[in-house]
Amino acid sequence: MRQHHICGVEVRRKHLPAHWLDLILLLELLLPRHFLPAHSTSNCFLITQNISLLAITHDSNDWAWNYTATSEETIQKSAIVRKKDFVTHLKVALPVPTPFVSTPVSARLPLITLTGIIPFCIVMCFLLGLGLFHFRKRRSRLLQQAKEEEELHDILPHLPTRFSFKELQEETNRFSKLLGSGACGSVYEGTLLDGRKVAVKVLEGFLQRAHQAKDFLAEIATVEHTGHHNIVRLVGFWLQGSHRILIYQFMVRGSLDRWIFGPPADGSHASALDWRQRYNVALGVAQGLDYLHEGCEQPILHSDIKPQNILLSEQFVAKISDFGMSRLMQRDMHSCVMAGVRGTPGYIAPECFLHGSVSKKSDIYSLGIVMLEIVAGRKVLEFSRLNTTAIAALSADGSSAEEAWHLPSWAEKKWEQGCLMDIVDPVLLEESVTCSNVSAYGFDKVEAQRLLYIALWCIQEEPAQRPHASRVVKWLEGCEPNVPQPPHASNSTKPTTLRHSETWLVSYRTSN
């Protein structure tokens, strides 16, 4: 039995260095089968004490061979020549276990950094790609829209001047001076490069749709042809996407409501407009509306006639403005149906509430309301006059108390009672001259009666009973001096649609 004693520690072969494994294999092949384990302890001690000594071999006769670090070749020779039974003591170094070396933090930082940066870069690339996609899509849409608008601009050669937004910012001092605001937008004062003052109206509520841009350009192209002294002239426009701005000529006196519902806007005098000015304003509005309905190549429905949309020049000439709500209508059409009720509460014709039907007669109804306001010097709706008694009196059968808060109902009631002059603004009746029907304010009872008759005709329940604008002009000009008396609207036969509109207005007011 062959024995190999490893001095210092007993280990397995896999722990031995490669050259010792070769030595042991050589000994197993060349040496005899049997050898005696002699002098094991002393030999191990000797080997461990001698640094250069690698192995000691003893045979059965106690012959010994010492092998140093340079004696690998001697081992082979001795083994072949001697061929005795012997025991070999080998000296090997203990296997050095590989120590665990922790990676320093500084070495791990690059890995941690990469682990965080790579997902971040992926997400950022995705977001940038998505943003670029939407940007290019939006840019393509805007370019296409601009191209269509330019084509329309070429197709419609009669469009007014098209301003840039930068020009409008400079001309309005960045929209700093607000003149007024309404349902359609806000109006700002501006000055063109040539020194002309303009009113810049920023329209609101438009969607970014191509067909709406076409309709808008077609409409202002039509308005550009409206050359009438009772129509505010359109100077220019700006259009981009859903944004629209109209530039009108500036009216020094402002809107009519500032002159008939209180002290004058300029504060120059303590009184309101005199009778002659009021009558001429009513005539001017009727003439302007007649031009829109009959004088244009294509009839125009304004759809929002009210004092706020009637401007006054320096000489108090009335001019109809704000075509943001207007709609074009073919000559062979008597009316058009709109998706929703448009206009201002109090000025909307009753049929608009029921059917949404808008026609020339709808504008006539609004004209009649404005005429009543001019004569009475008060607004169509005055909720300050509304009390709980009047609200309680409203019932399903249409009966009510005297509704002073609703000017048309109150005026009709006065007409039924034979007190037509009670409708007239008390300011106009002050300081009256006893020897004449004319007061210090130029008030003329005959003209007042004529104007009130016309107004009551214009606000009739049935559109067919309302006169055309051309006939209203003739009545006011005196071409037809005898204006027929309007029919009485007694409480029992009061128009149901007007009653429904009043009930709706009461509900709206009390719920807000």
UniProtKB/TrEMBL annotation:
Key word Disulfide bond present: no
Membrane topology recorded in Swiss-Prot or TrEMBL: Single-pass membrane protein
Entry keyword set: ATP-binding, Membrane, Nucleotide-binding, Signal, Transferase, Transmembrane, Transmembrane helix
Predominant cellular place of this UniProt entry's protein: membrane
Domain Protein kinase: 173-483
Molecular function GO terms recorded: ATP binding; protein kinase activity
Signal peptide start-end: 1-32
TM region positions: 109-133
A Pfam short name: Pkinase
Cellular component GO terms held in the UniProt record: membrane
Keyword ATP-binding in annotation: yes
Domain of life: Eukaryota
Subcellular location: Membrane
UniProt name for this protein: Protein kinase domain-containing protein
PROSITE patterns: PROTEIN_KINASE_DOM (PS50011), PROTEIN_KINASE_ST (PS00108)
InterPro entries: Kinase-like_dom_sf, Prot_kinase_dom, Ser/Thr_kinase_AS
